[in-house]
Design a protein that fits this description.
The chain is α+β, with helices and mostly antiparallel strands and 625 residues long. Helix content is 37%, strand content 14%. The strands form four sheets. A seven-stranded antiparallel sheet has the order 15-12-14-13-17-18-16. The chain starts with a helix and ends with a helix.
Length: 625
């Protein structure tokens, strides 16, 4: 295979790497998983992507599309060829101000898109906590939402059109189709025609329709990434009378690069938000109080309602940058609910926040109600968004692990659901971090577990299984915005039932019969506790160092603080100090994350140095400097 890869490298206009060093950098994302890829490709053109598809087909390997690599469920971890489009597929292709849409390549960063749109009075709403480095290809793949989804919903609702390569290398465009156009597609003798015919056959079946509507999450749960979105397609024409025009974009959103390789994305845009933004930052003694108060706040139609728990607040105390953003915090609250209002004037916002405070105080909820405007609002959101990265700073081997962090239920069910969830934790003598999207029925929940122990690995699976059962009880979605990947895919059959799960497998088979695109994600995934970054019983060797890493319990644990969330991939437009070498080169190997990955690999077991040849050892050392 090495010879074939070397030949492929000469045919590409971009780059291809199969050395141990670069493959190691791409063996992880922001999840708990690690698997060495066969190679890493940095395509420069569409022709390169077609060549890669043909190579994968001929050599029975697979392609794993990747942008910023911030996925939390192992979506971009695998044993095939990682195809990183974050360097060259970064163009904003076309803007139509009158029709309020933009066409972009998948490597366009969400926040940079909005910087471009701002002078035109337009805005792309869905906003992840990684928005200053998250790219549109990844946001489509995961169907990302964010803190303001109570207004802007998910990426899926903005996805109008997708240009992509199918698994046979043909280029297609998916968009809304009239009934005549839909049936014309079904008559094509190409793979595209097979896909449309297969979907028409599947969703025209009355028994399938009944089973889908019965088992998929209830409609009031808007954050839903449970398998492939056939529950949304069945609501479209021709399968539902009066339904909206059929559009495969609803299926592609959330498909995690398993169905087609996206090269262009057309997105609906909204007008810029109202001029004034105000944040009501309500302090509570407990998370339960905050979630009950959340239902009161939502009656006033806020643009966001976000939870910050005491674990994250504690992390920010020790962080030099984030400690400055704690200026509004009074005492040591068990939780803070940040409720955002956007209006034309501050007076309108003040009137609303006074009403919310009065309603909450009337039922003894909340003890401090600061309202923040102007530059202070950015500080609060920076504090909230910093939570994901700061969680990695917990000392020792116990970490807040991504395992059931993406569950979503009807917002009215949220207080009871979280109480039931915490009863599961108490049973297993665990605690968890709670943060994020209270307003949308999705609290990011991260139990604190030591995955280096046998007991911790067993708990990783046990908690996933028990919480899946709990989510099904509330007819919720096991994934709200982070995707199924290899973390939750094992439990999709439990969530939708065996008949619907077979339909999902049929979708994958009709689109990608040779499993070229990102296999073993969403369907037919391996057990969720395989290929973990840390192994049960794994040794953490101590070593003498010139500098003191006592606070982190050694240099290896200091390297392990990087959880892969990619904060160091910020561009010069995003601002901040990290990472100047990446800003200059746009190469993953020059990120702080890459240095941490290499340090962790080498320090975990010094014998791993044998895997690197002399030139690679030099590169490893250079990366770490």
């Amino acid at each position: 295979m090495k010879g074939k890869l070397q030949k492929l490298a000469t045919q590409l206009q971009g780059e291809l790497y199969d050395d141990t060093t670069i493959r190691t950098l791409y063996a992880t994302d922001a999840s708990a998983y690690r698997e060495m890829p066969l190679a890493v490709a940095i395509p420069k053109t569409k022709d390169d992507i077609q060549l890669l598809i043909q190579f994968a087909k001929e050599n029975k390997t697979n392609l794993i599309p990747r942008t910023a690599g911030t996925s939390l469920a192992g979506q971009v971890v695998g044993n095939g060829i990682i195809v990183d489009v974050s360097k060259h597929f970064t163009k904003i292709i076309e803007l139509n101000e009158q029709a309020s849409w933009v066409r972009v390549q998948p490597g366009v960063i969400r926040d940079e898109l909005n910087l471009f749109l701002h002078p035109h009075g337009l805005y792309f709403g869905p906003e992840t906590s990684t928005a200053n480095r998250a790219m549109m290809g990844g946001m489509v793949g995961n169907n990302s939402c964010g803190s303001n989804s109570v207004i802007y919903r998910s990426t899926r609702e903005h996805l109008m059109e997708v240009t992509a390569f199918l698994s046979d290398g043909t280029e297609v465009v998916f968009k809304a189709l009239s009934l005549d156009d839909f049936h014309a597609k079904c008559e094509l003798t190409t793979l595209e025609g097979t896909i449309y015919k297969s979907m028409r056959s599947m969703l025209s079946n009355y028994d399938n329709q009944v089973e889908i509507k019965k088992e998929f999450p209830k409609k009031s749960v808007e954050r839903r990434n449970t398998g492939y979105a056939i529950d949304l397609l069945v609501e479209m024409a021709p399968f539902t009378a009066g339904g909206e025009d059929f559009n495969f974009c609803s299926l592609i959103a959330g498909s995690e690069g398993t169905l087609a390789f996206i090269t262009e994305i057309k997105l609906h845009l909204d007008p810029l938000p109202e001029k004034e933004i105000g944040l009501l930052c309500v302090h509570f003694n407990s998370i339960d109080e905050a979630l009950r108060a959340n239902l009161i706040g939502l009656k006033y139609n806020p643009s966001a309602s976000e939870l910050i728990d005491h674990y994250i607040l504690e992390c920010t105390k020790e962080n030099i940058e984030q400690s400055k953003n704690r200026f509004f915090v009074q005492g040591d609250p068990g939780a803070i609910l940040v409720i955002e209002f956007t209006k034309a004037t501050r007076a309108e916002i003040t009137d609303l926040t006074n009403q919310v405070e009065a309603d909450m105080r009337a039922v003894n909820l909340g003890y401090h109600f600061p309202v923040l405007f102007g530059a202070d609002t950015k500080k609060i959101w920076t504090l909230r968004k910093a939570g994901l990265g700061l969680l990695g700073n917990l000392p020792g081997d116990e970490k807040a692990v991504p395992v059931i962090e993406d569950t979503a239920v009807d917002v009215a069910d949220l207080p009871n659901y979280i109480r039931d969830f915490n009863e599961i934790l108490v049973k297993h003598h665990l605690s968890a971090v709670h943060y994020a999207h209270a307003g949308s029925g999705e609290i990011h929940l991260r139990p604190i577990i030591n995955l280096k122990t046998v007991e911790g690995n067993e708990l990783f699976r046990t908690i996933a299984q028990e919480v899946a059962t709990l989510v099904k009880k509330y007819q919720g979605s096991l994934s709200g915005e982070h995707g199924d990947g290899r973390l939750r895919a094992e439990f999709i059959e439990k969530m939708v039932g065996p008949k619907n799960y077979q339909l999902l497998k049929d979708v994958k088979k009709s689109w990608d019969p040779n499993s070229i695109f990102n296999p073993n994600k969403i369907v037919e995934a391996p057990p969720m506790d395989t290929n973990l970054r840390y192994n049960p019983g794994q040794d953490t060797p101590a070593m003498e160092t010139v500098f003191s890493f006592e606070k982190n319990e050694g240099i290896l644990r200091a390297a392990e603080l990087c959880n892969g969330s990619g904060d160091c991939r910020k561009s010069e437009q995003s601002g901040g100090t990290m990472c100047p070498s990446f800003m200059a080169t746009k190469n993953e190997k020059h990120t702080t994350r890459a240095r941490a990955n290499i340090m962790r690999e080498v320090l975990t077991n010094s014998t791993k140095l044998n895997k690197f040849d002399s030139e690679e050892i030099k590169e490893v050392m250079d990366l770490c400097l």
